[in-house]
Amino acid sequence: MDGNNATPTGGCPVMHGGNTSGGNPVKKWWPNALNLDILHQHDARTDPMDADYDHRAAVKALDFDAVKADVEALMTESQDWWPADWGHYGGLMIRLAWHSAGSYRLSDGRGGAGSGNIRFAPLNSWPDNASLDKARRLLWPVKKKYGNALSWADLIILAGNMAYESMGLKTFGFGFGRADIWGPEKDVYWGSETAWLAPSENRYGDLDQPSTLENPLAAVHMGLIYVNPEGVNGQPDPARTALHVRETFARMAMNDEETAALTAGGHTVGKAHGRGDIDNIGVEPEGGGYELQGFGWANAGHDAKATNAFTSGIEGAWTTKPTQWDMGFFDMLFDHEWELTKSPAGAWQWQPVDIDEADMPVDTTDPSIRHKPMMTDADMAMKVDPIYNEICQKFRADPAYFADTFARAWFKLTHRDMGPKANYIGPDVPAEDLIWQDPIPAGPTGYDVDAVKAAIADTGLSAADMIATAWDSARTFRGSDMRGGANGARIRLAPQKDWAGNEPDRLARVLSALEPVAVAAGASLADVIVLAGTVGLEQSIAAAGQTASVPFTPGRGDATEAQTDADSFSVLEPVADGFRNWVKKDYAVSPEEMLLDRAQLLGLTAAEMTVLLGGLRVLGVNHGGAAHGVFTDRVGQLTPDFFVNLTDMSNSWHPVADGTYEIRDRKTGAVKWTATSADLVFGSNSVLRAYAEVYAQDDNGAKFVRDFVAAWNKVMNADRFDLAA
Q1: What's residue 11's pLDDT?
Q2: Cα gap 84→174, rounded to integer Å
Q3: Left if phi > 0, otherwise alpha if psi is -120 to 50, otherwise beta: which for 254?
Q4: Which residues are catalytic?
Q5: Please, which residues have CB within 8 angstroms of residue 138's CB and are 6 or more apart in sequence?
Q6: Radius of gyration over every alpha carbon of the chain, rounded to an integer in angstroms
Q7: How far apart are CA 425 and CA 60, in angstroms?
Q8: CA 251/CA 267 separation, integer angstroms
Q9: Which distant-in-sequence residues (6+ apart) come within 8 Å of 570 by Cβ?
Q10: How large a percentage of the chain has pLDDT more than 90?
Q11: Which of 305, 323, 490, 505 has the fewest beta carbons under 10 Å from its own?
């Protein structure tokens, strides 16, 4: 054999690392390349379920009472390999549920408990999630028993609920229906740091101004859920910590009262673990060897005793009776003076200056031993900050009010990213409509759709106006937390009616023409807006000489101002929309990257994004009537001209001074069209060009229309959870 082709003795017979490494070779060699991975992270290739598996149908067949009973029984079934504190896993399961849900942030709706993402890196290995791998293994027998119908996402949150119930709290309710993902999420930006718990300055413009925390982040460090429990940058100062607590929880959609309730209620039960030498703690799950089987944070000094467990490094319980829901947190916090000390693992924490032995919690393993309770810097913030102090005093004076406020805040924390109540399944779904669920009344379905379409056509509105308005109404949908979308017609309400991206003058003119149509027909305005887009599309398809019917399903409702939390909806405002070739102002992120973000939130694949953008360009619906990217002489007709002319080699492409481009005739040099980077990326990116070439082919004119209509229909119905109920 030729020596150059022989495998060296002891060498690897396959491409070492090349076909199994997690890196992206394109980004390795060309860091500025547009990465489309976020559009294809959870497709059929990663899902082990059968193609016809219907998770919602499976969930509805669960024996809900049996599941709850099994989870509650598990709370007091202590295991030798990870013994329960005081024989009760309640605190651990609450922490698992809390940390699963607590990664949610309001700004982009990403994170949270809705997909079971805490099972995967990086969340499964965050320092703040230390030893939660044990909690999930303790739940495995229940997951194994009930199988597919009980998702990890549901089970993790249910475990937290049942923990509170078993310790005496009446929870507000529970909704099943979360579906698991099957691999790490690639669409969540957790920060740019390359080290766990890197200094907070890395993500703040000014650390003394918590509002300067980098968007869309909410946590103060890489690897934490909320704030540093030892203080800002690990330096205890409860007054300063309070400011960061307020900002962080606000970014997770919580007000001051909810924040105080969650802090106090979360620390009414359970304990922190930091007894022992931190140097003895092993690596996180993702860094462990095969023999660890996904376990992390091995503790050589654990000795099968709950007392020796290690999680945060802070050590101790907050209350006298840590397995009982009571008012002990407030009694402990306000009835004692506190002094700064360190845990056995060296973490800053607070302990009471003077306390009766009878008020000390007993040891988790040996009830004959008592230990001093502790408070974190964030707990002390509830006492030091005047606003939090006043709220906590109100709670202390009215235990029933505290329990109800906490139960509601806990429900919000653990259900926020499920979206509207139509997504909830099971007997414990609360009847009350909560404003953060973005409630929408059921819409009428009995009207004559064809008659409404005819009435819309008679308004004299242009196809472009109707299509643009329908798109703007629907494009706010976020699959990250199931918010936004056309259902509810909130585009007619504040704040959406005034958003620059919605062209308020044009929007008002279109709505004034459509509102009388809705009233006369007995239809919702939400339906009529989408139906107007349907009318406009069908007109544009016919003008192009094609034949296609655009699907439409009635039943959307119209939300009222009272059902709309205007402040909460402000985060949905688009600051860019590549589909309409618009950017509000210059940003550090490129227009094409913002286009990918919007497409991912809408649930689009790269192919769907491609066909939608190309079609919308030739329909002439660019924001403000801009001509960039309108590569056609037949504006208003649904043709594949965008792709045909983008790939036509009789053209050449030239950057100009303002960051846009000119498309010129290669022979004459005459400017034919102008473009943005969000247009030309479909010719320059090799993957997107492959899709563009499909639609530029002579044999795919009908396919282009068919695919555009399908993708359009997907966006228009992205928020129709009522159809799957």
Answers
A1: 57
A2: 25
A3: beta
A4: 99
A5: 74, 79, 82, 89, 92
A6: 28
A7: 7
A8: 21
A9: 495
A10: 89
A11: 505
